[in-house]
Amino acid sequence: MAYPYMNYNYNYGYNNYNRNLFGYNYSSPVEFCGGYTSVPSQMPVKKTVSTPKIDSTSVTNPVKSKPANPQINDNNNLGNEFIKVARKYSNCAETDGSHLKFCINPTCQYEDPNNEEWCTDFVTYVVKEAYKNQGKTPPEGFGNHDVMSLKNWAIFNKHFIRTNNQPKKAEFIAQNIKPGDIMIINENNYSHTGFVTKIDSNGVIHTIEGNRDDRVKEHSYSPDYPNLSGFIRLTF
Fold it and tell me: Which of 111, 133, 195, 211 has its CA 20 to 30 Å from the CA of residue 145?
């Protein structure tokens, strides 16, 4: 069953939002001082200062710029925070056991005792740390060690952007996927996930992933990669 992507808007609370959006520079008021002229053998007569008539058709109203949308800025900050935190752990690997810090199960071993499935553990760990750094709480129920469970959570909670059913996949990805989105790959016998770091204009996807060649590592994919299922977006 297809779950079309719906662009739902979630409202969050934002701290430290600067509400002084318009900084106008007003010049000091100009004072027109009336002088006096002397008339012989008479009391001083106050000089009248004429006020020029203003042609209202020549006056234009100042155009105020639109205030920045704090939600867009905040979402960009959160997506960038995902990438920043993920890159902090670059090269954590199975060879020295440094990958174990991400795992929900301390051994990183789940269904297959010989396979340490920790790519989703990594995504979960990074998301929770990034939200904490931003003074926020992750969406309720987010986080799992299993890719398909994470994907199903995203579908149910309207956080999933499906791309495998798009007729012009490269164009769709280039226009709609953003840094900080979470890539979901479904292959024959396994699934994989990681953070988007960049989308090229031709739709090429750049990522940073846990358990990529047994370490935290950056990678890239063609938009036509056949097993690409879609993306989870937490930064609405």
Answer: 133
